[in-house]
Amino acid sequence: MKMQRNSTKMLVLSGMFVAVLAVLSQLQIPMPSGVPVTLQTFAVALAGYVLGWKFGLVSTAAWILLGAVGAPVFSQFSGGVGVLVGATGGFIWGFPVMAACCGYGYAKKPVIFAAASLAGLAICHLTGVLQFSAVMGMAPGEAFLLASFPYLVKDVLSLVGAYAVAKAVRTGLRAAGVSLVSKA
Question: Which residues contact 87 (CB under 8 A, 6 or more apart)?
Answer without folding.
Answer: 34, 35, 131, 132, 135, 136, 147
